[in-house]
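Reopening this ticket.

The earlier resolution said the output was attached, but the attachment link was broken on my side. Pasting everything inline this time so it's all in one place.
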Amino acid sequence: MAVTLPRPHRDDLRIAAGGLLGGLFLWGVGLYSRTRDDPIILVDRTWAVLVPLVVTAGCELLRRSRPRTALIIGTLAIAADLVTRGSLATLVMFTDLMYAAVLYGSLGMARRLPWITGMVTVVLTVGPVAAWRKPEALLIGVFTGLVTFTPAATGWIVRNHRDTAVAERLRAEQTALLAEIDRAQAVTAERARMARELHDMVANHLSAIAIHSTAALSLDDPKTSKDALAVIRENSVEGLAEMRRLIGILRDDSGDLEPAAAPTLDGLEALTKGARTNGLDVTLDATHDARLPAPVELAAYRIVQESLTNALKHASPGRVTVTVAQLDGSLCVRVTSPYGDRDGPRAPGSGAGLIGMEERAALLDGTFEAGPEGRGPVKVWTVRATLPLTHRTLGTDGGSE
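Inline output:
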C-alpha cells in the first residue's frame, strides 16, 4: 500500500528552499565547516557535502507533519555531514528539525528530547575533557549543546507558551459561553416571572369584566345592568391601575418601585371582598405570624388571587373557602370551590394560571396540588400549596415584583 505524505506547510516549503539555496551558495563559493586536514573527514569530495544538505532540506518539508520521522532522518544526515567537509546550512537546518520535533511532536517526545540532548551534551563535555585533559575539549560539549540541547529547550519553552495560550483562549471561550447561557436563563426566568405577574394581576379583573358584561347584555333588567356596569367599571379602574404599576416597574431601572409594590397577606381581606363584589360567596380564615418572608407572602397572595379568579370563571354556585395557616415551618394555602358539570366556563381561560401557581410553589421548594375531590353529587375543586418559610432563594424570586 502506497504511503501518501501530507502536503507541506507553506512556511516549511520556504524554510526548506531557503536552507537548500543557502547551502548551494556556500558550496558554490567553497565555504565549508571543516578544512581538508581535519582528521574526522572520511569523504573528501566536494559533492559529498550536497547529499546531507539535500536530505536535510527534504526533512524540513516534514518538520510540522512528521516531526519524529524528520528528526530521525535529519540525525542520520548530520552524522553523514560530519565525515565530509561539512555545510553550515545543513547544521542550521538540523537545529531547526530538533526545535520542530519538540514544538510539533507528541508530548512524550517533547518531554524526552530536552533530557536526552542535555545528557548527551554533559557526556560529550565531561568525556573528552577527562580523556584528553585539554581545555579545548570543552568546545565539543559546547558545540553539541548549541546544536542539540539549545533548540530542544527553546522548542519546549515555546510549546509551553503556545499550550498556555490555547488553554487561556479555550477558558475565555468557555467563560463567554457560560455567561451567555446565564444571560439567556436570566432572560427566560424574568420573562416567566413577568408573565406570572401580568396574568395574576390582570386576569382577575378581566374575568370579572367578561362575566358581568355578559350578564348586562343578556338580562333586560335596568337595575341588574346598572350593578353589572358598576362592577365592570370598578374592575376596569383597578385593572388599569395594576397595568400602570406594572408598566412603571418595567420602565423604572432604579428598583425603587419593586419592594413597595409587592402585595402581602394583609391584602387578602380586600382580595376576598373584591371577589364577593364580583359575585362569589367567599369566606376567609387566615392565621399566621405578622411578619413572613416577602417571597412567601407574595406567592401565597398570588395563589389565592388566581384560585379566586378560577372559581369565578369555572366554579358551580356555592361557597368558596380560603384557608391560610402557618404550620411546622411552612405556610399552607387551601382554596376550595364547588365543582360540578357546567355548560362551559363563564369566561375563557388558557390554563396558564395553574402553571403559574405551580411555578411559584416550586421556586420556593414548596408543593402544589390542584384537582377535584369527593364523590357523587358533592364535589369540590381544591387548590393546595405548601410554602416553606426558609429557603435559599427567598428574596430572589417573586418578592421582586
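Reporter confirms the inline version is readable. Confidence is low (pLDDT under 50) at residues 255-260, 392-401. Residues 316 and 338 are 5 Å apart (CA to CA).
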